[in-house]
Design goal:
Blueprint: H1 2-24, H2 37-62, H3 67-82, H4 89-113, H5 119-146
Length: about 150
């Protein structure tokens, strides 16, 4: 009986040691804010593309631009944003959310042009935009201390 208990304890200790070694060697997400040149470039690219898309959307709503123009602009903006490389973890997350939002918005406008229901795509686009806003609100103060102003994106 004692021998079985010792074997069980030995196996438990070996399993625990293996688990500690396996999890200890994994890379962990960098949660320290940065404000590198590529971070500033991302902020500027996002600001410029969101402003341009807002203008295109206003022209679309007033009838001065076609849906193809607006969806093309959204896809171009997504491509530009995909090409950025922010180093800050919150800006990397924002990048993914903004790219998704732009793609969903482009699909919604295309559906609207075909007189189909664009509601679910637009809902996703707004949801991604809201989540990106939340990420930026939480990162605003730490990034500002480092010299990165995300207020134009809020």
């Amino acid at each position: 009986m004692r021998r079985i208990g010792l074997i069980a304890v030995g196996l438990f200790v070996m399993a625990a040691a293996a688990l500690v070694l396996a999890t200890n060697g994994r890379a962990r997400a960098d949660r320290v804010h940065t404000c590198s040149a590529t971070d500033r470039q991302f902020i500027e690219a996002a600001r410029t593309n969101m402003t341009a898309l807002e203008l295109w959307s206003e022209q679309y709503q007033s009838g001065d631009a076609s849906g193809g123009d607006v969806s093309g602009q959204a896809r171009t903006a997504a491509k530009i944003m995909r090409g950025t490389g922010p180093t800050d973890f919150s800006l990397r997350q924002t990048k993914q959310l903004v790219v998704g939002m732009l793609n969903e918005y482009a699909k919604a406008v295309q559906l609207q042009e075909r007189r189909r229901d664009a509601g679910s795509r637009m809902y996703r686009a707004y949801g991604l935009a809201n989540y990106a806003h939340t990420v930026l609100v939480h990162a605003k103060a730490p990034l500002a201390q480092l010299g990165c102003d995300v207020r134009p994106l809020l």
